[in-house]
From TrEMBL:
Its EC number is 1.1.1.271. InterPro entries: Epimerase_deHydtase (IPR001509), GDP_fucose/colitose_synth (IPR028614), NAD(P)-bd_dom_sf (IPR036291). Belongs to the NAD(P)-dependent epimerase/dehydratase family. Fucose synthase subfamily. Residues 8-229 form the NAD-dependent epimerase/dehydratase domain. The active site is at residue 138. It comes from Limnobacter humi. Pathway: Nucleotide-sugar biosynthesis; GDP-L-fucose biosynthesis via de novo pathway; GDP-L-fucose from GDP-alpha-D-mannose: step 2/2. Signal peptide: none annotated. It catalyses: GDP-beta-L-fucose + NADP(+) = GDP-4-dehydro-alpha-D-rhamnose + NADPH + H(+). NADP(+) binds at residues 12-18, 107-110, 142, 165-168, 181. Pfam families: Epimerase. This is GDP-L-fucose synthase. Catalyzes the two-step NADP-dependent conversion of GDP-4-dehydro-6-deoxy-D-mannose to GDP-fucose, involving an epimerase and a reductase reaction.
Length: 324
């Protein structure tokens, strides 16, 4: 069991999820946190990562560092997405084990599940079908991370856990107009259209796909909840070869519904249209969160409230965001 004096290394602490996890740990009284920027520690360099672990010897690791992006970025940089994520996962998990670190939490993604997985997607849908082609390299890397953790648990008796979040959004997100996920890309587009006085905003795809969205503060709360569970409780709700846990709301909406909600939150009063020449991606992605609820956690921030919080942050940091 971890105590408030335990040393916890949060990899990716400046990203959207990592920064939220740091905030959550601080709120709970965990102040012995270890962090490094990319300039200080390149997680793709095995020797540097091992040297860091040998020096710091953390009691626990939260592996929130990853190369992430939306459909456009995944289609454009597939080699980068699979290689960088595999390197980071392998280097951190290996170094954690060799430094004697018993506790690790790996953050994955809902894209690990087959494109046409039965909805809502249960944990046992993993490896039962073909992945969505637009982000397959990233998904394969995340699946490898899950299996890496499971393998160290089986062979070495480690307590390495994995959580698979649904689509995340919130403060410190990437708002790049091309390489970001749907909510930040859409928020920036609607905001800039409002400022220009545009009569119309064009949304990629048909608007028909259904997506589930989770605010990053809820994701952080769920992640820390799973990390701090006693081992007996965690094992009672997982299996050696099926150890990952879905994290989501269990509620979804169409992209068209999201767009109309976004317009309302941002204050854009023009019309919406849909560019059907752009890819939709997976038809539906809804997480089955039964396992997580049985472990005593469920979400607290609904979509519209979460978008309002995110837009307030965006407006306060718009100059920084526009540099992207």
């Amino acid at each position: 069991m971890l105590s408030l004096n335990s040393t916890i290394y949060v990899a990716g602490h400046r990203g959207m999820v990592g920064s939220a996890i740091v905030r959550r740990l601080h709120t709970l009284g965990y102040h012995n946190l270890v962090v490094r920027t990319h300039a200080e520690l390149n997680l793709c360099n095995q020797a540097d990562v091992q040297a860091f672990f040998d020096a710091e010897k953390p009691d626990a690791v939260v592996l929130a560092a990853a190369k992430v992006g939306g459909i456009h970025a995944n289609n454009t940089y597939p080699a980068d997405f699979i290689m960088d994520n595999l390197l980071m996962e392998c280097n951190v998990v290996r170094a954690a084990h060799h430094s004697g670190c018993q506790h690790l939490l790996f953050l994955g993604s809902s894209c690990i599940y087959p494109k046409l997985a039965p909805q809502p997607m249960r944990e046992d849908a993993l490896l039962t079908g073909i992945l969505e082609s637009t982000n397959e390299p990233y998904a394969v890397a995340k699946i490898a991370g899950i299996k890496l953790c499971e393998s160290y648990n089986r062979q070495h008796g480690r307590d390495y856990r994995s959580v698979m979040p649904t689509n995340l959004y919130g403060e410190n997100d990437n708002f790049h107009p091309d390489n970001s996920h749907v909510i930040p890309a859409m928020m920036r587009r609607f905001h800039e259209a409002k400022l220009r006085g545009d009569a119309e905003v064009v949304v990629w795809g048909t608007g028909k796909p259904m997506r589930e969205f989770l605010h990053v503060d809820d994701m952080a709360a769920a992640s820390v909840h799973v990390l701090l569970l006693d081992e007996a409780t965690y094992k009672a709700n997982t299996q050696p070869m099926l150890s990952h846990i879905n994290v989501g709301t269990g509620v979804d909406c169409t992209i068209a519904e999201l767009a109309h909600t976004m317009a309302r939150v941002v204050g854009f009063e023009g019309r919406l249209s849909f560019d059907t020449t752009k890819p939709d991606g997976t038809p539906r992605k809804l997480m089955d969160v039964t396992r997580l609820k049985s472990l005593g956690w469920q979400y607290t921030i609904n979509l519209e409230d979460g978008l309002k919080r995110t837009y307030a942050w965006y407006q306060q940091n718009v100059d920084q965001v526009r540099q992207l």
